[in-house]
Amino acid sequence: MRHYRYVIDELSVSGQVMRGVGGSMIVAEFEGRGGIDWELVVRTASGTSIEMAAHTLEMNGPEGHLSGPALLVRSDGRSHVFRGAGTLVGFEGFPFDPI
């Protein structure tokens, strides 16, 4: 398995800009399976309401812009977990080969 962590400091969810964003996105590739899996775990300003549904995410961080469809699978109004549900645009492959 290969994986890589991206720092995310700007996020919009289906066009809604989130305030107070800080989080991580993990991209993973499992041996023997085609494609990648990705998940975003992010904190926003207190009381941010996001519908438990499919969304289009636009994410920015020190390594650039990423976007793609994702499902909101958990949220408590401040911490949110999204699971990738399609192509992660901007992902150019893993920055290094596995050891």
How would you characterize the overall build of this protein?
The chain is mainly beta. The chain has one domain. It has no helices and eight strands. Strands 1-4-5-8-7-6-2-3 form an eight-stranded antiparallel sheet, with no helix packed on it. The protein starts with a strand and ends in a 15-residue tail after the last strand. The mean pLDDT is 92.
Question: Topology of this structure?
Answer:
Layout: E1 2-8, E2 10-13, E3 16-17, E4 22-29, E5 37-43, E6 54-61, E7 64-75, E8 79-84
Antiparallel strand pairs: 1-4, 2-3, 2-6, 4-5, 5-8, 6-7, 7-8
Summarize the structure.
The protein is mostly beta strands and about 100 residues long.
Keywords:
single chain, 99 residues, mainly beta, 55% strand
Fraction of helical residues? under 10%
Q: What percent of residues are in strands?
A: over 45%
Low-confidence stretches: none
Shape: globular
Strand order of the largest sheet: 1-4-5-8-7-6-2-3
Q: Order of SSEs, N→C?
A: EEEEEEEE
Query: Treating each run of at least 4 consecutive H or I residues as one helix, how many helices?
Result: 0
Mean pLDDT figure: 92
According to DSSP, the number of beta strands is 8
Radius of gyration equals 13 Å
Structural class: mainly beta
Query: Largest sheet, if any?
Result: 8 strands, antiparallel
Our count of domains comes out at 1
What distance lies between the first and last C-alpha atoms, to the nearest angstrom? Answer: 11 Å
